[in-house]
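hey m, so remember when u said the tokens were messed up on ur end? i reran from scratch. heres the input so u can diff it against urs
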Amino acid sequence: MGGYQLKDTYFEIIKASTKLGFTSFGGPAAHIGYFREEYVEKRKWLDDKMYADIVALCQFLPGPASSQVGISIGLLRGGILGGILSWLGFTLPSVIILMLFAAYVTTTGSFDSGWIQGLKIVAVAVVAQALLGMQKSLAPDKIRISIAVVCAILTLLIPTAIGQISIIAVAGLFGYIYYKSEPVEPAPNMVLTFGKRTGIISWILFFGLLILLPVVKPFFQSVYYSIFDTYYRVGSIVFGGGHVVLPMLEREAEVAPDIFLAGYGAAQAVPGPLFTLAGYLGQLTAGIPGAIIAVIAMFLPSFLLVIGTLPFWSFIRSQKGIQAALKGVNAAVVGILLAALYDPVFTSAVTSTFDFIIVLITFMLLVVYKWAPFKVVLISTLLGAGVQLI
């Protein structure tokens, strides 16, 4: 590919992804729809079968699925630099907005204002809506609903990062045993500018950082090192996308629950991936450098996992055992989200009858009337401010 043609390709990638970064409201499921419209229907960079396979890959990996889909398409279109540009375009708009919000909250100290309470309350409706959507696709039958409920109970009883990982692992093992006889369709081959050697190096980096960062941490008394370690670990081991990161981030970020949920509510009002909440939390912890480090650390595992897996995906995707285990893992994700809906979302946000009334209104607008999330967030902030004036 010639230099000018390569520059044109990179420009196309940043143009398309930035457009999506400013317009993709509605969470991971909606993002997948926006991506398909832009990359499959409009630009025809890939066909539906390849797109569906990329989505399946990103559901298989821990981390933010929609961001990983964008990174994967960038990698296929323009190599590793294409993947980076695709991520930047999709992610930066919401990162900048959330950093500004964090700076405002820090400067004014207005954690208890009515409109911020409204942002916390709308998180209940948004997570409930996400739970309903995920249940339909990831736990559609009695067995997987049962797995989800058991995992929700265990998550509430064992509220630790290790507990969450163990719950996912056991659910995957159950899925493998129960569903291993079901057939799997073969996966198409992907044309990449990098090969299996690069993939193996990415896997080594992924696990090396995951293991060594906490080991070396005692020797570096730095807030920036601590931020990188925390957010890299969270980005590495959370399955199911942004909503499921909520309980782990709430434990790891060392931010008060009301401040945390205010940021989570604000993240619903902006387009792009929910993982950009890391920018808000990093800004609160250590200013602009903290925000930049938190965002990079949060998404770095996604890059390493996607680059590491794409060269091998055709083989992995065709294995019956992998697909069977995924059914258990996906049901566990629904259960973890169900637990998060109660604690910390509901317990921290709903403290009065008026709060629950706002939850009912916003949930109805989202689920029944299909309002865009950013509109519902605006309504919730206005209602929250109104309640404070009563």
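this time it looks ok to me. The mean pLDDT is 85. if urs says something different then somethings off w ur setup not the seq
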